[in-house]
Write a structure and sequence with these properties.
Layout: H1 8-37, H2 52-83, H3 88-98, H4 103-136, H5 144-173, E1 174-175, E2 178-182, H6 189-212, E3 219-221, H7 225-238, E4 245-248, E5 259-262, E6 269-273, H8 274-279, H9 282-297, H10 300-323, H11 326-331, H12 339-354, H13 358-379, H14 382-395, H15 404-410, H16 416-426
Parallel strand pairs: 4-6
Antiparallel strand pairs: 1-2, 3-4, 5-6
Helix pairs in contact: 1-2, 1-15, 2-4, 3-4, 4-5, 4-12, 5-6, 6-10, 7-9, 9-13, 9-14, 14-16
């Protein structure tokens, strides 16, 4: 389809793409400028804990990631235009049909081909982030051998887990009379598809800690006896039962330190990176662990899961409605309506819409972080949590001077100055 002969609906959507791209670039430029403006002066609140060299490193790291973010945003927008109005999706669909494929197999072939195209286009920037920026700033410890092994495992998991789910959804979308038409919304195929997806998502969340994560990392129980006793006492105070607290060999891939909560039911567990334990005192580890427990005890994990399932239901309903509209296909450069084209188009254009709701999700996430911090101060020391966070900011090269607008739009964690100030007020 010629970009100069777009329908009014297509022109509106193209304007949304350009507006989103312009907004993202503007915010990234603001973030970079904010970090560089204070490069040679550590904020007073951190002057005693963060050396000037570490502050400069964080400023340069933030600016480098912002520049890469701009490149990624441009490539993402160009890929979207190429796949839709540029005719790439239509060409892939036509090529697969010419091989005699039909039905679910045709859909899988088209979706897999689009995935491969997107992967190839984005791969150079992904490599630059890991072996360029992360290596330059001393964070990357990934060898090419380990990187390729992770890549192959990830692709294999995508095939084993993803293809059956896609095949099930495509089968549900097909009309009784043939694979090249879509079930009308009134048949509620989208509701059945949502139930399939929901069960799959819950099963995956349950299985991830015990069966999937160990394919990539090694996990071991905490072996420091004094730290183990401190953790067990904390778990008892918080009323938390799980398969345990595990240490992950994150140092094999990166020097970044982190901790996270994962899993459902009997498989729920808290994971501490070994790089985290190398830098924090037992008192600080306890405070970080109390923060992670706060997310569980305050039902943040459950709330996010419920919201994800609710949005999934709404998304599949919209997919069902759009898939039955011939104009949906012609608007985005596809002449032949089909379940797989509807699915690809929907997931291509969805981020363009949801981008404008990112600040809402970010604000909600920051609120949860503050709540988890407050929970941690009731079961550990606020001073220890503050000192642990400052160490993590320094070691992970997190900017201490983020741009306010960028932070409000994208940051899922509170800005360092606000978060530390709140904890210091408690101490």
């Amino acid at each position: 389809m010629d970009l100069f002969s777009l329908t009014p609906a297509a022109a509106v959507f193209l304007a949304l793409i350009l507006a989103g791209l312009a907004c993202r670039i503007w915010l990234l430029l603001r973030q970079s400028a904010s970090a560089r403006a204070s490069r040679d002066r550590v904020p007073e609140a951190f002057a005693d804990a963060v050396p000037l060299d570490a502050h400069r490193k964080a400023s340069d790291y933030t600016a480098a990631n912002a520049r890469l973010g701009i490149a990624e945003s441009v490539v993402e927008a160009l890929l979207l235009v190429a796949l839709t109005w540029g005719g790439v999706l239509a060409a892939i669909d036509s090529a697969c049909r010419s091989q005699g494929l039909s039905g679910v197999w045709l859909g899988i072939a088209v979706i897999a081909s689009v995935f491969i195209v997107a992967f190839i286009v984005n791969w150079p920037l992904s490599l630059y982030r890991l072996f360029g920026i992360e290596t330059r700033f001393g964070f990357n410890r990934m060898t090419w051998k380990l990187y390729l092994a992770d890549l192959m495992k990830g692709l294999l998991l995508s095939v084993v887990l993803g293809l059956p789910l896609i095949a099930a959804i495509l089968w549900l979308m097909q009309a009784p009379e043939g694979a090249d038409s879509v079930r009308p919304t009134g048949e509620y195929w989208w509701l059945i598809a949502w139930l399939v997806w929901a069960v799959f998502s819950l099963a995956l969340a349950w299985a991830y800690p015990a069966f999937i994560a160990p394919l990539f990392n090694r996990f071991r129980p905490v072996d420091d006896q004094s730290l183990k006793q401190r953790i067990e006492a904390l778990l008892e105070r918080c009323g938390f039962t799980s398969r345990g607290v595990f240490v992950m060999d994150g140092s094999r891939r990166s020097s970044h330190g982190n901790a996270y909560f994962t899993g459902l039911g009997a498989n729920k567990r808290i994971v501490l990176f070994d790089t985290l334990l190398e830098r924090l005192t037992p008192e600080e580890v306890e405070a970080v662990l109390a923060h992670e427990l706060g997310h569980f005890r305050l039902k943040h994990v459950r709330k996010r899961l419920i919201l994800t399932l609710a949005f999934g239901l709404g998304g599949l309903y919209l997919l069902g409605w759009f898939a039955a509209q011939p104009m949906f296909y012609s608007t985005f450069g596809s002449a032949t309506p089909s379940p797989h084209v509807a699915l690809v188009l929907f997931f291509l254009i969805l981020p363009v819409i949801t981008f404008w709701f990112v600040p809402v999700g970010s604000a909600w996430s920051r609120r949860h972080e503050f709540e988890a911090d407050h929970f941690a101060t009731r079961h550990s020391q606020a001073r220890a949590l503050a000192s642990a966070l400052v160490k993590l900011y320094k070691d992970n090269a997190t900017t201490l001077t983020p741009d306010a607008l960028y932070s409000a739009f994208f940051d899922t964690h509170p800005p360092a100055p606000r978060r530390i100030a709140r904890l210091q007020a408690i101490t």
